[in-house]
User: Fold this.
Amino acid sequence: KIFVCGTAEEYGLAKKPWRPLKEDYPLNPNNPYGVTKLAQEYMGRVWHASFGLNILLARPFAHEGPRRGKEFATSDFALQILAIQRGLQKPIINYGSLETVRDYMHIKDMVRLYWDILNSDFKSGEAYNICTGKETTIGELIKTYLKISGLEKKVKLELNPKLVRPTQASYLVGNPSKMNKLIKRRPKYALKDICKDMLKYWDENFEMPPVR
Assistant:
């Protein structure tokens, strides 16, 4: 069995009638990462069709946890909060967008689902969303961090133009029904668990957030 790990970024800009995103939604990536993953998926389809290889085409949505690069929002917010608590940053959380919607899953859940699907009777050459189906805005993500850290009423949020992406998929939330029909396991961890684990990890491995 061959596991081809794609990305939700293959969907690109999603129109409202299609939400949440199912596997048959038209693929229209709007950044280089999504384009390369789409090319990878099509190569997987070619390998399956041409040589009969047993290939799972996975489209995992946002998966977060300890050791996530600090350039990603979940780590960046955790580091900003810890920097504020240490007196190394003004009580201001910088952000690029509060309205962007994502489908967050703990990396522990994601990896277990990879394993479950690989050990199931998945249809070779077909794509499967790996996701929760739950919508979370960046604003809600920040509020969760602030609540856990006790900074809810002690900091303000500030838009930083340097953090605004020129091509940003505003909505990437998946429909997990195809995956759920295949396996019994469901995600165990909630958004608050992701935030707690991220804060714990970066507290033990603290780095200053990028200078802006």
